[in-house]
């Protein structure tokens, strides 16, 4: 009983010590935070700023914070690059007012000349909180070293040193602060894409099963990565130059009759969400003129971005030869002119020759065979509308592969024909209505494993 009382007392003592240590730690943390906030040049944080006016040699750039991000209000109305604005805000509001940062508490006129603050040309006004209380910082010159610049608050005497980065950001032009995004849609939300050229229209669509397909000018499976590369190219590239704030003169930029149009649908929209038009190429600026349905201006993008737009449907076509899950296969047949190999899966999921009671086949061998098959890629699409299969050695085929999946009465097939002039083999497959060119390795796979 005495042992229990002693232990209980020690528990109470340790708990008290722990509680005291925690309270002491919290008190210290709060005090450090208070001291840190007291040394801030501005009594607010970037999130509190609702409007900014950047005055450079009496040229005003006005920005406002909206629910969807920052916007430029003057000298024109446009979306701002919110990341660039927040970066600028961070540099400025991180400035300090303690003795280490005060260059001169009450400078004489000559000292103001040295600081570049006698006749300053750059100032920034922040409007903070619901009452939009203004705070103005006047920016001087950059210091010769130490990565700092000089500044003072409007109506106050002291000259402070601030980060040179803040001064550099304030010197940027309107292009820097402007949103330069081309495609403002999230590629993940897009479920239909159309490329219109005078000679061809290519349509790709994302059905409910989540696998991109081509619908026009041919039907086939699209390469998911290539579709997203194209969407990503326009979502991630930046506008190179803003050429005109209106669309009054489309003809001068070749946009009255665009050479290419891209149409994007966001999931759920029956009409195109956004239409992008490509006009003339500017050789001297190495870019193409662009207009879009979701804005009123004309701008320039890098020529590489436009050159990446596919000219033919096959550029977006998947080169994957097989689409099956090995674990779901129940039967494999390899048919040649003089021989047929049949593999069947029994109830124990073992592979056997000819039927479920036949000779057992090494599971690892079948696994390796299927992995080799799946690794094969389509080398080229020869034609989408063959006049005759016999000219390719596909009527009848030299070799035929048939794969049956569980609960499916229709096999996945691959037919192998003659050798192509380029050293490949002609083929046709279940998921493609075209004549294909495959590496000759596929022929060796089908003839050597079993």
TrEMBL record:
<feature type="domain" description="DUF4340">
    <location>
        <begin position="212"/>
        <end position="397"/>
    </location>
</feature>
<dbReference type="Pfam" id="PF14238">
    <property type="entry name" value="DUF4340"/>
</dbReference>
<protein>
    <recommendedName>
        <fullName>DUF4340 domain-containing protein</fullName>
    </recommendedName>
</protein>
<dbReference type="InterPro" id="IPR025641">
    <property type="entry name" value="DUF4340"/>
</dbReference>
